[in-house]
Amino acid sequence: MAAVRTSSEIGFNRAAIVAVLVVTIIFLAPIYWIASTAFKPRNLATTIPPTVVFQPEISPFVKLFAKRSQLRSPPTPEEYAAAPWWERVVFNGGEKIVRDGKGEVQWSGYPSRFMNSLIVAITSTVLAVGMGTFTAYGFSRFRVKGEADLLFFILSTRMLPPVVVAIPMFLMYRAVGLNDSHLGLIILYTAFNLSFSVWLMKGFMDEIPKEYEEAALVDGYTRMEAFFKIVLPEAATGIAATAVFCFITAWNEYAFALIMTSRRAQTAPPFIPSQVGSGLPDWTVIAAGTFLFLLPVAIFTFLLRNHLLRGMSFGAIRK
Amino acid sequence: MTQIELSGVQKYFGAVQVIKDLNLKIDDNEFIVLLGQSGCGKTTTLRAIAGLETIDGGDILIDGKPVQHLKAADRDIAMVFQSFSLYPHMSVYENIAFPLRATRKSKAEIDQEVRSVAKTLQITDLLAKKPSALSGGDMQRVAIGRALVRRPKAMLMDEPIGALDAKLREEMRAEIKRLHIKQGSTSIYVTHDQIEAMSLADRIVIMHEGVLQQVGSPDDVYSHPANLFVAQFVGSPVMNVAEASVTEKASAASVTVGDAATGFEFPRALLSKLNGHAGGKLALGIRPEGVIVRHEAADGFLPVETQIVEPLGSFDIVDIKVGSRMLRARTKSGFVSGPGERVFARIDPAQAHFFDVASGRSLGVRL
Ligand SMILES: Nc1ncnc2c1ncn2[C@@H]1O[C@H](COP(=O)(O)OP(=O)(O)OP(=O)(O)O)[C@@H](O)[C@H]1O
Ligand SMILES: [Mg+2]
């Protein structure tokens, strides 16, 4: 690299920075929209033009988690004074929190949907990445008969839009009792992610020199031990990258979750928009649900960011 | 106390045979160097001995016991890979300790042995570092340390210093030799660098296209190449090889190179030593130092013209034209002034080799 930069290079650099900024803004705008709406008072959520400066409120999140119903008559001043702050914000919106016979606050549908999302996404990611890693190792290190055909076959499962098989899958799932079950969704998402995981991990495995394991084999270890002690630590970057992609796919999946689940195993993506339909939509609550829904992926990606960056440039910098 | 024997070893990759009927016996404590061009099957041979490659025929015996069906882990052999293959996620200490952790040794024992090996190799101050922070020479030391620490039956080294720069290579060569003399273990060392082979080996094994060409001491393969391949592979600058015909001339023999008008004078004994091959197609092999050049005409010297002169520092290599053939002669530097000079040349019969062109074999003539 030249140490001295010409003016055209500097110009190019500036243009690149501007381009990156523009792209970043385009990508962040919807996220800003959701995040800001999640903290807006209800009456400011749908103003035209949009309200940018406002007093942030926590009420959308209270409403998101608690089961509410419309107030017939306003609460008495005593009732209002006795209520905790989170109940008051609901009163302020002309609603009340639903309590059961013993006076216990009832949860809304959101927390359980969120949990379902976590269970399904995490389990299917672990399964897809785990099986993908083993499969990729096998393909990478051993002479497999018809290897190219098998790998093509594995990839071909992704060649049609998954929704195409939604109806047959639904009928099959109903027949075997897997609809609206965690297991059903986990199997589905694992199957979708597996081909991707195998291919991605195969790329990473191929990059790990086989001399590492061979050294371990000569040093007195079995192949299994060599795999766990040498290959897995070396593949950490690839595993992290694959896990992020699988997790995002499973976490964001909408169509199958909508068709295959209704209550017990329903995940957040089909649940959140279903709230739009019930009565006058409270967009702040929907935004709050969406905002929380964004967090796990953001956190997961953030934790693995070093691995991811290395994963992106894997193979490009070596050799 | 480890002997290794290869007996009739065959290895195919698909339809391609990369090791062809290899027979070799390696003595205890011997330092054997496998020498050959790229792709001749050196690494494959080494990997077969280590147990990383299965063989398709023959036996590999360690101390008389066939091991070809044993896993690598059960052969008790250490190997240094060309790429060093230090585990990147482990410190130098962990790398060296790794082979010991496969055994039932206690932590204290392992620690003691790692430190003792580190001391021998002078890498004690590197123990905490990661391999990526090491220089090439240090990586190589660590790789050797990892191989030595277990006190294996035999050490296999696959071009362990091939990736280092020239100066470091020379240093490491000396160090490997020193270590071998000190530790004394049966060693097989693969290289395509003949200087490395010459300086390290007790015996050199020369391979070509999967076929063993010659086994012998460095001096042996240099002075008495068994065939044309070895003759031209060993030694730098390369040996001159030219088709030649041998005739009887007065009281002596005459060796004519190619289509030259006159032949070089050889002792009469050549005729009997050729043992009837004199009439067949022969090749004369002569190293550049065996081609003697002088400025004045003399008995037995043929007039020739110089062509290219290559100055190589302490000596020059001068191409001289004999008939339509070119012979390379080694002269003192600056001995001839340049191309087109008329000089007189002779071939030293004591340094001449004769080969049967058809089979490539040396006829074993020593004058
Ligand atoms: N796993 C393999 N599959 C197919 N062919 C192979 C394999 N390994 C080696 N070969 C072939 O076998 C031949 C011998 O290879 P080998 O690695 O033993 O050569 P080498 O003498 O070590 O060469 P180099 O000096 O380049 O390391 C080569 O032609 C090589 O292409
Ligand atoms: Mg090799």
UniProtKB/TrEMBL annotation, chain A:
Record keywords: Acyltransferase included?
A: no
Identify the domain of life.
Answer: Bacteria
Q: What PANTHER family does this protein's entry cite?
A: ABC TRANSPORTER PERMEASE PROTEIN, MALTOSE TRANSPORT SYSTEM PERMEASE-RELATED
Entry's localization field: Cell membrane
Protein name per the record:
Binding-protein-dependent transport systems inner membrane component
Chief localisation class: membrane
Source species: Mesorhizobium amorphae CCNWGS0123
Topology of this chain in the membrane: Multi-pass membrane protein
Q: Which residues cross the membrane?
A: 12-35, 118-139, 151-171, 183-201, 230-251, 283-304
UniProtKB/TrEMBL annotation, chain B:
Which InterPro entries is this protein grouped with? AAA+_ATPase, ABC_transporter-like_ATP-bd, ABC_transporter-like_CS, ABC_transpr_MalK-like, ABC_transpr_MalK/UgpC-like, Mo/tungstate-bd_C_term_dom, NA-bd_OB-fold, OB_MalK-like
A Gene Ontology cellular-component term: ATP-binding cassette (ABC) transporter complex, substrate-binding subunit-containing
In which domain of life is the source organism classified?
Answer: Bacteria
Under the heading Pfam families, the entry gives: ABC_tran, OB_MalK
- Grouped into one coarse class, the protein's main location is membrane
- The entry's keywords: ATP-binding, Cell membrane, Membrane, Nucleotide-binding, Translocase, Transport
Q: Where is the ABC transporter domain?
A: 4-234
Recorded GO molecular functions are: ABC-type transporter activity; ATP binding; ATP hydrolysis activity
Q: How does it sit in the membrane?
A: Peripheral membrane protein
Q: Name one GO biological process term.
A: carbohydrate transport
**Protein's cellular compartments:** Cell inner membrane
Q: Which family does it belong to?
A: Belongs to the ABC transporter superfamily.
Q: Which PANTHER family match?
A: MALTODEXTRIN IMPORT ATP-BINDING PROTEIN MSMX, TREHALOSE IMPORT ATP-BINDING PROTEIN SUGC
Instruction: Spell out the protein name for this chain.
Output: ABC transporter-like protein
What organism does this protein naturally occur in? Mesorhizobium amorphae CCNWGS0123
